[in-house]
């Protein structure tokens, strides 16, 4: 179980890095408003995931980790 969760967290790290790169590129080449919109959407999604984790009675770092994986875990799909 611990090994499976670490794979999810690694994928979430990749998703966070990819999101950060996209936000920086959009802010640099596009408009700052769109960059804030993208970042705000991910922030709202993370907040909702954290709320759900808290409602399901997960506490502390376990709730934070589950919300992080729920928000950025898609990064596992863009790795070879």
How would you portray this structure in words?
The chain has 80 residues and is mainly α. The protein has one domain. α1 runs antiparallel to α2, α1 crosses α3 and α2 packs across α3. The radius of gyration is 14 Å and the shape is flat.
Layout: helices, strands, pairs:
Blueprint: H1 2-29, H2 32-55, H3 60-72
Helix pairs in contact: 1-2, 1-3, 2-3
Question: For the terminal residues, how far apart are their CA atoms?
Answer: 22 Å
Number of domains: 1
H-E order: HHH
Poorly predicted segments: none
Spell out the key features of this protein:
80 residues, mainly alpha, 3 helices, 0% strand
How would you briefly describe this protein structure?
The protein is mainly alpha-helical and 80 residues long. The chain has helices at residues 2-29, 32-55, 60-72.
